[in-house]
Design brief:
The chain is built from 5 helices and 5 strands. The chain is α+β, with helices and mostly antiparallel strands and 136 residues long. 12% of the residues are buried. The structure holds zinc ion (2 copies). The site of one zinc ion has 8 residues, from helix 5.
Amino acid sequence: MEKLQKIDYYKKLGLKITPQRLAILEYLENNREHPSAEDIYNALKERFPSMSFATVYNTLEVLMEKGLIKEIGIDSSKKRFDPVVHPHHHFICRKCGHILDVEKDFDIIIPQELSECKILDFQVVFSGLCPECKED
Ligand SMILES: [Zn+2]
Ligand SMILES: [Zn+2]
């Protein structure tokens, strides 16, 4: 999408667009690193010295409400965010914290215990050592 089209799209979603917010959106676009709020703040603070960490965090909250990003709770040390919102799974490296996307359909049989529940999402999490950490 062109930048103006994008701004229009975000406005239609009811997002107030500020230069900082736009920069956060751009940073997240096609980002497969599953950044934390700190990562995003650190990446942008030079360009926006007046931007506070709270701005980043609040923007992430709004983007989550609008369904543009998802929070992934597999890193116990910090919340990580994912702009890829279609269902997919993850691998997390126990050493460096790198998170990889796993784009595969797993056929899961809903267990009996959950038969009364309405399942909205599920996630398969692999953990171990990424190729780089495996070598050390
Ligand atoms: Zn690693
Ligand atoms: Zn992901």
